[in-house]
Amino acid sequence: MTVNEQVLSYPIPSDAALDPPAEWAELRGTCPVAHVKLPSGDQARLLTRYEDVKEVLADPRFTRQLNAPDAARLSAEGGGVFSSEFAAIIPDGGEEHQHWRRLVGKWFTAKRMSALRPKMAQIAEELIDDMVERGAPGDLKAALGFPLPVYVICDMLGVPAEDRDRFSYWSDTLLNLTRYGKDEIEAAQAAFFEYMSGHVAAKRAEPGDDLLSELIAAGGPEDGGLSDLQILVTGMALLVAGHETTANMIGKMVSMLLADRTHWERLLAEPSLIRTTVEETLRLDANSGFGLPRYLKEETEVSGTHLPKGTTVICSMAAANRDDSAFDAAAEMDLSRSPNAHLAFGAGAHSCLGQSLARTELQVVLEVLLRKLPTLELAVPVAELERVEGLAVGGLRTVPVRW
Questions:
Q1: Which residue of 141, 173, 331, 361 is most buried, as measured by CB atoms within 10 A?
Q2: In the prediction, which pLDDT does 271 show?
Q3: pLDDT at 252 over 90
Q4: Pairwise CA distance, residues 62 & 286, whole Å
Q5: Where are the beta strands (DSSP E) in 8-122?
């Protein structure tokens, strides 16, 4: 049976931690709008071609909110970042969404990120020193990949970094596919909501130099600002997005560069390639997680396939980023690839708000690692690296390294 005729289970499993499932290439070639069954048991359509994914992500007829009665549920437990009531609080489209992005986006400009670089580099150096002091082998994800983005986003939001283990657990429950049960998810989300409510109240009483204090100072909706509830949910969303994806990407990026150590050697010889290398590892990341689900509010056509109103589609940016019609030698890692119009951060009005933050963190980590640990190597064969399972984000469970 060809992929055209079957309903594939999604996410499509891959045996190798850093390599894509073989089905992606077949789907792009012969079945770009595939039928898939989600962990909830609901059906959706999967897009794997670059042009289709880019087009749908930029099309306002496809909404990111999956709270319609006929929208596919990603997880049997419901809730989660796409379909919980929290998802509906941040405006989804039009002028309201643009207004929200303008207010929050001021904190994520390239200029602000440049100003943060020295602090990020200092945090990275201290974390690497601590890892070296504990001795090899170390887990690069636990020692550096996870704490660095958490310290940075906590600092931006003015929340205490020592609460990071709780944030990590709350984030995981919001990103659940198959790992947690309904009661546990609801309890965790209530605790997260209560924590952030207390934090916003404290910022209202005693503002600091942070994003939440600035959103509060902008006033309520009548003054051109956000409602209390929108500020609170924005804080929760940024805490989840600001650490989970980048923490995972740091581990994957370093693993990809060490899996074939000629890449690492080339960077040691040509550190000017760090910026394009970060973009190339983002493009080639075959373990980026679920992709972006979208719900179709009116019928349309994608790649010659009719999609009725009420269809849920999954945009696989990772599969699209390996499309030979969009990238020369798409399966090859080219550290100097430029331009590199990958879709790792999405596209259109909902492209990732924090992409300049993520890029800066990844560049700084690479700069500091190359300088401090030039002899870095994986402490296990690539085949032994294991994927994070059961969540909507992709990552590696551990990244064992020595130096």
A1: 361
A2: 97
A3: yes
A4: 24
A5: 8-9, 33-37, 43-47, 62-63
